[in-house]
Amino acid sequence: MLTEARALAILFGSSSAVLAGLIFDTPKPNEPPRWQSFREIFSSGYCTAFFGTAIFNWTDSAKVRMQAESLLVPDVAQRSYTSFPSALRTIVTQEGAWSLLSAGIVSACYRDILYSGIRYGAYPIVKRVVFSYADGNDLGVGKKMICGAITGGVGSFIANPTDIVKMRMQSQAGRIVDGVYQTGLYKGQAVKYHNGFQAFAEIYREGGIRPMYGGWQATTLRAAMGTGAQLAAYDHTKFMCKTHLNAKEGPLLHMFASLVAGLIFATAAAPADVIKARYMSEPTKFSGVGDCLVQLVKQEGPLALFRGWTPSAVRICSLFIIMTPIYEQIRQKLGLGWFAS
To answer: What does the pLDDT read at residue 189?
Structure first.
Protein backbone atom coordinates (compact mmCIF):
# COMPACT_ATOMS: atom_id res chain seq x y z
CA MET A 1 0.00 0.00 0.00
CA LEU A 2 1.30 3.46 -0.96
CA THR A 3 2.29 5.43 2.14
CA GLU A 4 1.25 9.02 2.76
CA ALA A 5 4.88 10.17 2.41
CA ARG A 6 5.29 8.58 -1.03
CA ALA A 7 1.92 9.89 -2.15
CA LEU A 8 3.05 13.39 -1.13
CA ALA A 9 6.30 12.99 -3.12
CA ILE A 10 4.31 12.01 -6.23
CA LEU A 11 1.96 14.96 -5.89
CA PHE A 12 4.76 17.45 -5.23
CA GLY A 13 6.96 16.16 -8.06
CA SER A 14 4.27 16.19 -10.72
CA SER A 15 2.97 19.62 -9.68
CA SER A 16 6.49 21.10 -9.62
CA ALA A 17 7.11 19.82 -13.14
CA VAL A 18 4.01 21.65 -14.38
CA LEU A 19 5.04 24.90 -12.67
CA ALA A 20 8.58 24.65 -14.06
CA GLY A 21 7.18 24.23 -17.55
CA LEU A 22 5.12 27.40 -17.16
CA ILE A 23 8.09 29.38 -15.83
CA PHE A 24 10.37 28.30 -18.69
CA ASP A 25 7.67 29.25 -21.19
CA THR A 26 8.69 32.90 -20.88
CA PRO A 27 6.15 35.36 -22.31
CA LYS A 28 7.34 37.73 -25.01
CA PRO A 29 7.81 41.42 -24.09
CA ASN A 30 4.59 43.47 -24.17
CA GLU A 31 2.51 40.35 -24.81
CA PRO A 32 0.27 38.51 -22.32
CA PRO A 33 1.54 35.06 -21.32
CA ARG A 34 0.05 31.98 -22.88
CA TRP A 35 -2.68 30.24 -20.86
CA GLN A 36 -2.91 33.26 -18.55
CA SER A 37 -5.96 32.06 -16.64
CA PHE A 38 -4.41 28.63 -16.06
CA ARG A 39 -1.20 30.29 -14.86
CA GLU A 40 -3.20 32.43 -12.41
CA ILE A 41 -5.09 29.46 -11.00
CA PHE A 42 -2.39 26.78 -10.95
CA SER A 43 0.37 28.97 -9.51
CA SER A 44 -1.80 30.14 -6.62
CA GLY A 45 -2.92 26.59 -5.86
CA TYR A 46 0.66 25.29 -6.01
CA CYS A 47 2.03 27.99 -3.69
CA THR A 48 -0.75 27.58 -1.16
CA ALA A 49 -0.43 23.80 -1.10
CA PHE A 50 3.35 23.43 -0.85
CA PHE A 51 4.53 26.71 0.72
CA GLY A 52 1.61 27.00 3.10
CA THR A 53 -0.58 23.98 3.76
CA ALA A 54 2.23 21.39 3.73
CA ILE A 55 4.28 23.45 6.19
CA PHE A 56 1.44 24.27 8.59
CA ASN A 57 -0.60 21.09 8.30
CA TRP A 58 0.23 20.35 11.96
CA THR A 59 -1.98 23.21 13.13
CA ASP A 60 -4.91 21.91 11.11
CA SER A 61 -4.32 18.39 12.43
CA ALA A 62 -4.60 19.62 16.01
CA LYS A 63 -7.62 21.81 15.25
CA VAL A 64 -9.58 19.03 13.53
CA ARG A 65 -8.74 16.59 16.35
CA MET A 66 -10.07 19.12 18.89
CA GLN A 67 -13.25 19.81 16.95
CA ALA A 68 -13.99 16.15 16.18
CA GLU A 69 -13.43 15.12 19.81
CA SER A 70 -16.02 17.63 21.01
CA LEU A 71 -18.54 15.64 18.98
CA LEU A 72 -17.35 12.11 19.74
CA VAL A 73 -16.70 12.70 23.46
CA PRO A 74 -19.56 14.81 24.91
CA ASP A 75 -18.15 14.69 28.47
CA VAL A 76 -15.54 17.46 28.68
CA ALA A 77 -13.79 15.71 31.56
CA GLN A 78 -13.07 12.70 29.33
CA ARG A 79 -11.50 14.66 26.50
CA SER A 80 -7.78 14.46 25.68
CA TYR A 81 -7.50 17.45 23.33
CA THR A 82 -8.93 20.23 25.50
CA SER A 83 -6.84 23.09 24.12
CA PHE A 84 -4.46 23.76 21.27
CA PRO A 85 -1.28 23.28 23.39
CA SER A 86 -2.66 20.12 25.01
CA ALA A 87 -3.65 18.71 21.62
CA LEU A 88 -0.14 19.30 20.27
CA ARG A 89 1.47 17.83 23.36
CA THR A 90 -0.77 14.75 23.43
CA ILE A 91 -0.36 13.95 19.73
CA VAL A 92 3.43 14.34 19.75
CA THR A 93 3.83 12.36 22.99
CA GLN A 94 1.59 9.47 21.95
CA GLU A 95 2.20 9.36 18.21
CA GLY A 96 5.34 11.31 17.39
CA ALA A 97 5.91 14.54 15.49
CA TRP A 98 5.46 12.92 12.06
CA SER A 99 1.87 11.96 12.86
CA LEU A 100 1.10 15.58 13.70
CA LEU A 101 2.83 16.89 10.59
CA SER A 102 1.54 14.33 8.10
CA ALA A 103 -2.08 13.60 9.07
CA GLY A 104 -4.12 14.13 5.91
CA ILE A 105 -1.32 16.08 4.25
CA VAL A 106 -1.81 14.68 0.74
CA SER A 107 -5.54 15.37 0.69
CA ALA A 108 -4.88 18.80 2.20
CA CYS A 109 -2.43 19.62 -0.59
CA TYR A 110 -4.50 18.44 -3.55
CA ARG A 111 -7.50 20.17 -1.97
CA ASP A 112 -5.59 23.47 -1.94
CA ILE A 113 -4.28 23.04 -5.49
CA LEU A 114 -7.92 23.03 -6.55
CA TYR A 115 -9.64 25.19 -3.91
CA SER A 116 -7.01 27.90 -3.38
CA GLY A 117 -6.13 27.84 -7.05
CA ILE A 118 -9.66 28.99 -7.81
CA ARG A 119 -10.17 31.35 -4.88
CA TYR A 120 -6.86 33.18 -5.37
CA GLY A 121 -6.22 32.67 -9.06
CA ALA A 122 -9.73 33.52 -10.24
CA TYR A 123 -9.92 36.67 -8.09
CA PRO A 124 -8.15 38.95 -10.63
CA ILE A 125 -10.20 37.32 -13.40
CA VAL A 126 -13.51 38.03 -11.62
CA LYS A 127 -12.43 41.62 -10.95
CA ARG A 128 -11.81 42.14 -14.66
CA VAL A 129 -14.91 40.33 -15.91
CA VAL A 130 -17.54 41.39 -13.36
CA PHE A 131 -16.40 44.93 -12.59
CA SER A 132 -14.28 45.77 -15.68
CA TYR A 133 -11.28 46.34 -13.43
CA ALA A 134 -8.21 47.97 -14.97
CA ASP A 135 -4.74 48.02 -13.39
CA GLY A 136 -4.23 50.99 -11.09
CA ASN A 137 -7.91 51.59 -10.31
CA ASP A 138 -9.57 50.86 -6.99
CA LEU A 139 -12.90 49.05 -6.80
CA GLY A 140 -13.57 49.75 -3.14
CA VAL A 141 -13.83 47.25 -0.28
CA GLY A 142 -17.40 46.19 -1.05
CA LYS A 143 -16.75 45.07 -4.63
CA LYS A 144 -13.52 43.37 -3.60
CA MET A 145 -15.43 41.38 -1.00
CA ILE A 146 -17.95 40.33 -3.63
CA CYS A 147 -15.16 39.11 -5.93
CA GLY A 148 -13.53 37.17 -3.09
CA ALA A 149 -16.85 35.68 -2.00
CA ILE A 150 -17.55 34.49 -5.55
CA THR A 151 -14.16 32.82 -6.04
CA GLY A 152 -14.10 31.40 -2.51
CA GLY A 153 -17.60 29.97 -2.75
CA VAL A 154 -17.10 28.47 -6.21
CA GLY A 155 -13.70 27.03 -5.33
CA SER A 156 -15.00 25.51 -2.12
CA PHE A 157 -18.03 23.93 -3.78
CA ILE A 158 -15.92 22.32 -6.51
CA ALA A 159 -13.32 21.09 -3.98
CA ASN A 160 -15.84 19.85 -1.38
CA PRO A 161 -15.08 16.13 -1.99
CA THR A 162 -11.40 16.75 -1.25
CA ASP A 163 -12.39 18.56 1.94
CA ILE A 164 -14.35 15.50 3.05
CA VAL A 165 -11.27 13.35 2.51
CA LYS A 166 -9.02 15.75 4.44
CA MET A 167 -11.37 15.91 7.42
CA ARG A 168 -11.72 12.13 7.57
CA MET A 169 -7.97 11.57 7.32
CA GLN A 170 -7.16 14.12 10.04
CA SER A 171 -9.91 13.11 12.46
CA GLN A 172 -9.04 9.40 12.12
CA ALA A 173 -5.27 9.80 12.50
CA GLY A 174 -3.31 7.99 15.22
CA ARG A 175 -0.43 5.62 15.93
CA ILE A 176 -0.88 2.36 14.04
CA VAL A 177 0.26 -1.12 15.06
CA ASP A 178 -0.67 -4.13 12.92
CA GLY A 179 -3.31 -2.15 11.06
CA VAL A 180 -5.11 -0.96 14.21
CA TYR A 181 -5.14 2.51 15.79
CA GLN A 182 -3.44 2.51 19.20
CA THR A 183 -4.10 6.20 19.88
CA GLY A 184 -6.39 8.96 18.68
CA LEU A 185 -10.16 9.27 18.46
CA TYR A 186 -10.51 5.87 16.72
CA LYS A 187 -8.33 3.88 19.12
CA GLY A 188 -8.92 0.14 18.77
CA GLN A 189 -10.43 0.37 15.30
CA ALA A 190 -8.88 -0.90 12.08
CA VAL A 191 -7.18 1.60 9.78
CA LYS A 192 -9.47 2.53 6.94
CA TYR A 193 -7.47 5.09 4.96
CA HIS A 194 -3.76 4.70 4.18
CA ASN A 195 -3.07 7.74 1.97
CA GLY A 196 -4.94 10.66 0.44
CA PHE A 197 -5.42 9.02 -2.96
CA GLN A 198 -6.69 5.71 -1.56
CA ALA A 199 -8.98 7.56 0.87
CA PHE A 200 -10.60 9.52 -1.95
CA ALA A 201 -11.19 6.33 -3.95
CA GLU A 202 -12.53 4.47 -0.91
CA ILE A 203 -14.96 7.19 0.12
CA TYR A 204 -16.19 7.48 -3.47
CA ARG A 205 -16.56 3.69 -3.73
CA GLU A 206 -18.61 3.58 -0.54
CA GLY A 207 -21.26 6.06 -1.59
CA GLY A 208 -20.50 7.75 -4.90
CA ILE A 209 -20.17 11.47 -5.46
CA ARG A 210 -23.30 12.62 -3.61
CA PRO A 211 -22.07 11.89 -0.05
CA MET A 212 -18.82 13.67 -0.92
CA TYR A 213 -20.84 16.86 -1.17
CA GLY A 214 -22.19 16.44 2.34
CA GLY A 215 -21.87 19.69 4.27
CA TRP A 216 -21.25 21.73 1.11
CA GLN A 217 -23.43 24.51 2.51
CA ALA A 218 -21.08 25.00 5.49
CA THR A 219 -17.90 24.76 3.43
CA THR A 220 -19.17 27.12 0.76
CA LEU A 221 -20.41 29.64 3.33
CA ARG A 222 -17.10 29.47 5.21
CA ALA A 223 -15.10 29.97 2.04
CA ALA A 224 -17.29 32.78 0.73
CA MET A 225 -17.23 34.67 4.05
CA GLY A 226 -13.56 34.02 4.74
CA THR A 227 -12.22 34.61 1.23
CA GLY A 228 -14.37 37.68 0.68
CA ALA A 229 -12.97 39.19 3.87
CA GLN A 230 -9.43 37.93 3.31
CA LEU A 231 -8.82 39.01 -0.29
CA ALA A 232 -10.58 42.34 0.21
CA ALA A 233 -8.37 42.93 3.26
CA TYR A 234 -5.17 41.94 1.44
CA ASP A 235 -6.05 43.90 -1.70
CA HIS A 236 -7.19 47.02 0.17
CA THR A 237 -4.33 46.96 2.69
CA LYS A 238 -1.86 47.02 -0.19
CA PHE A 239 -3.81 49.81 -1.89
CA MET A 240 -4.00 51.96 1.26
CA CYS A 241 -0.32 51.46 2.11
CA LYS A 242 0.78 52.37 -1.42
CA THR A 243 -1.59 55.34 -1.61
CA HIS A 244 -1.10 56.89 1.82
CA LEU A 245 2.27 55.57 3.00
CA ASN A 246 4.05 55.49 -0.35
CA ALA A 247 4.80 51.81 0.18
CA LYS A 248 6.30 49.80 -2.66
CA GLU A 249 5.48 46.29 -3.82
CA GLY A 250 7.80 43.92 -2.00
CA PRO A 251 8.07 41.30 0.77
CA LEU A 252 7.45 43.72 3.67
CA LEU A 253 4.22 45.05 2.20
CA HIS A 254 3.10 41.56 1.22
CA MET A 255 3.81 40.17 4.71
CA PHE A 256 1.98 43.00 6.49
CA ALA A 257 -1.06 42.74 4.23
CA SER A 258 -1.02 38.95 4.73
CA LEU A 259 -1.12 39.34 8.52
CA VAL A 260 -4.11 41.67 8.35
CA ALA A 261 -5.88 39.36 5.90
CA GLY A 262 -5.16 36.26 7.98
CA LEU A 263 -6.66 37.65 11.20
CA ILE A 264 -9.76 38.81 9.36
CA PHE A 265 -10.17 35.47 7.57
CA ALA A 266 -9.82 33.42 10.77
CA THR A 267 -12.48 35.48 12.54
CA ALA A 268 -14.96 35.69 9.67
CA ALA A 269 -14.76 31.99 8.87
CA ALA A 270 -14.67 30.57 12.44
CA PRO A 271 -18.38 29.70 12.97
CA ALA A 272 -18.74 27.97 9.61
CA ASP A 273 -15.39 26.24 10.16
CA VAL A 274 -16.57 24.63 13.41
CA ILE A 275 -19.86 23.50 11.86
CA LYS A 276 -18.02 22.10 8.84
CA ALA A 277 -15.61 20.09 10.99
CA ARG A 278 -18.36 18.56 13.12
CA TYR A 279 -20.64 17.73 10.21
CA MET A 280 -17.95 16.26 7.97
CA SER A 281 -16.44 14.16 10.76
CA GLU A 282 -19.73 12.47 11.71
CA PRO A 283 -22.46 13.38 9.16
CA THR A 284 -24.82 10.59 10.29
CA LYS A 285 -25.35 12.29 13.66
CA PHE A 286 -27.16 15.25 12.08
CA SER A 287 -30.09 15.69 9.73
CA GLY A 288 -28.27 18.55 8.03
CA VAL A 289 -25.93 21.51 8.51
CA GLY A 290 -28.67 23.54 10.19
CA ASP A 291 -29.32 20.76 12.70
CA CYS A 292 -25.58 20.60 13.43
CA LEU A 293 -25.55 24.34 14.18
CA VAL A 294 -28.64 24.18 16.42
CA GLN A 295 -27.32 21.23 18.41
CA LEU A 296 -23.92 22.84 18.95
CA VAL A 297 -25.29 26.18 20.18
CA LYS A 298 -27.97 24.48 22.30
CA GLN A 299 -25.53 22.12 24.00
CA GLU A 300 -22.41 24.27 24.34
CA GLY A 301 -23.41 27.88 23.79
CA PRO A 302 -22.55 30.42 21.05
CA LEU A 303 -18.87 30.67 22.05
CA ALA A 304 -18.47 27.09 20.84
CA LEU A 305 -18.71 28.51 17.32
CA PHE A 306 -15.22 29.95 17.85
CA ARG A 307 -13.63 26.77 19.22
CA GLY A 308 -10.26 26.26 17.58
CA TRP A 309 -9.88 29.96 16.66
CA THR A 310 -6.33 30.12 18.04
CA PRO A 311 -4.84 27.24 16.01
CA SER A 312 -6.82 28.40 13.01
CA ALA A 313 -5.47 31.97 13.31
CA VAL A 314 -1.92 30.70 13.90
CA ARG A 315 -2.11 28.48 10.85
CA ILE A 316 -3.78 30.97 8.53
CA CYS A 317 -1.63 33.98 9.45
CA SER A 318 1.60 31.98 9.31
CA LEU A 319 0.57 30.39 6.03
CA PHE A 320 -0.29 33.73 4.42
CA ILE A 321 2.87 35.47 5.67
CA ILE A 322 5.11 32.77 4.17
CA MET A 323 3.11 31.78 1.10
CA THR A 324 1.93 35.13 -0.23
CA PRO A 325 5.34 36.82 -0.77
CA ILE A 326 6.54 33.67 -2.57
CA TYR A 327 3.38 33.64 -4.67
CA GLU A 328 3.87 37.30 -5.57
CA GLN A 329 7.41 36.56 -6.81
CA ILE A 330 6.29 33.51 -8.80
CA ARG A 331 3.63 35.68 -10.45
CA GLN A 332 6.46 37.91 -11.68
CA LYS A 333 8.28 34.89 -13.14
CA LEU A 334 5.09 33.84 -14.90
CA GLY A 335 4.49 37.29 -16.40
CA LEU A 336 1.31 37.89 -14.36
CA GLY A 337 2.31 41.05 -12.48
CA TRP A 338 1.60 41.79 -8.82
CA PHE A 339 -1.51 40.26 -7.28
CA ALA A 340 -4.49 42.65 -7.07
CA SER A 341 -2.50 45.60 -8.42
So the answer is: 92
